Amino acid sequence: MNRRDFLKLTKYAISTYFFNLLGCGSISPKIYGGFDEITKGYNFFNKQNPNLRLGVGTYGTFYKTILDYGFSHEGIGYKANKFYACASGKVYSSCSRNLSGGHYTDSGDGAVIMHGLDVYVDYYHMQTGSCTLKPGEFVNRGDFIGKAGAPRKMHLKLVVYRSDPRYLSAVNQGRREDPDNYGHKMGYMQYWDGKESLDLSYEEVTKRSKIQDRLINNFVKMYDGPYADEVHKGIRLTINNRIYKLYSNDMFKFGKFLYEKDPTTFKGNKSEISTLIGDIYENQPVVLTLPFK
User: Fold this and answer.
1) Closest to 55 (Cα-Cα) out of 19, 24, 79
2) Is CATH 2.10.25.10 correct for 3-24+48-186?
3) Mutual angle of helices 248-261 and 270-282, in 10-degree steps
4) For 95-142, how does the pLDDT look when each residue is reduced to its tens digit (9 = 90+)?
5) Alpha-carbon torsion, ordered 252, 255, 259, 261, to 10 deg
6) For 213-231, how does the pLDDT look when each residue is reduced to its tens digit (9 = 90+)?
7) Is the full-model pTM beyond 0.90?
């Protein structure tokens, strides 16, 4: 092994260790405004997906964070060879990133697939030329997206964000969320066997998205414990002097943590809250499955 390859592998090993720490919640964010009393024991980073097949020759997580560290490290990075669509949808954009310069230099091919009005999935760091999707095309769950092998990248990156398409741009990509809150019942993504139909129409996805956002907001507003006003406005975290605000699924997950920790801090009776939580699950707009087979 020559010196250049050795340094490359060493850098990869250090990066993998660091971002695995992030994925396991070992590095804690600073909570903007301090909410130590109510956030104690809560992990703002989902741990590694327990559904992943790990080991030599299989899949693992290179890094995982729901937070935006700039253009490089939001979402989940997978050690995988190929990307497949984790849900059916319409191709919003597709490009050869390494030709676009700026922040995307050496990032390889990328594609954005739209599910309903405001749910988008980004597939990054693919081998140049391996992604042949065109804007406007329709893809089915499990369809081939592209191969790993972007210049200077040793992983494939998946990002989920919510946004009205009128406000999308290269810089403002909406509200990023943890892809592992989009599996069955808003939990970890699972492998898809190709048999069960998990996809809904564009209209139904859009309808459910709006309903679920409203229900989650109603649920969080029922919280009446310490820092209630701040929680109602949305928990914010500060990492590396950047502020990240919890939205939708992430906020629901935190609200459930507060409720399970102390149900008396919520207005309403158990039956009412239980029904509301059930309705939130029932109106899940998109179920994502792991983007490889």
Assistant:
1) 79
2) no
3) 150
4) 755 443 333 445 677 888 888 777 888 887 788 788 888 889 999 999
5) 120
6) 999 999 999 999 998 988 8
7) no
The C-alpha atoms of residue 220 and residue 226 are separated, in whole angstroms, by 13
Note whether 153 and 106 are within 8 A (CB).
yes
Domain boundaries, the chain: 3-24+48-186, 202-282
Packing angle, helices 270-282 and 202-221, rounded to 10: 150
**How buried is 10 (Cβ within 10 angstroms: 0-12 exposed, 13-18 middle, 19+ buried)?**
exposed
Write down the pLDDT at residue 70.
37
